[in-house]
Amino acid sequence: MNWTPITFEELKIEISNGEHKMDQNLLDFWNKIKTVPKKWSEAEYGDEGNGFWVVAKFKNLVVYYNDIEEGFNISEFKYEGEIQEYGAEQDELNFAIYKLVELKNYLFLS
């Protein structure tokens, strides 16, 4: 694979771009679940880049940036620091957070 992992500075730009596209309700939810970005491992494709940047946690779900696919994804986790499954979405942050809100509403999660 000929790819270079995203830097923390580049990730901050991606996050900022997504925040600017959120309406107030989405931004309020984002502000409740966001976390300081931290690399989490992922067994299938995460080794080469030392994991993927997790940017938010809600219940047993994380939002992370897949820098191979260049987009944000949602995955379950069982153990802190380990993304359970690889996602290949190429979503901007605002769309990934919208998907999470829809999932939350569908499953009636608080």
Shape: globular
User: What's the domain count?
Assistant: 1
Portion in helices: 25-40%
What are the secondary-structure elements, in order, as H or E?
HHEEEEEH
The largest sheet is:
5 strands, mixed
Q: Give the distance, in angstroms, between the N- and C-terminal Cα atoms.
A: 40 Å
> What is the spatial order of strands in the main beta sheet?
4-3-2-1-5
Task: Give the count of helical stretches.
Answer: 3
Strand content: 25-35%
In short:
By secondary structure, this protein is α+β, with helices and mostly antiparallel strands. The chain is 35% helix and 27% strand. It contains three helices and five strands, in the order ααβββββα.
Could you characterize the architecture of this molecule?
It is built from three helices and five strands. By secondary structure, the protein is an alpha+beta fold. It has one domain. Strands 4-3-2-1-5 form a five-stranded mixed beta sheet. A hairpin with a 4-residue loop joins strand 3 and strand 4. It comes from Sphingobacterium anhuiense.
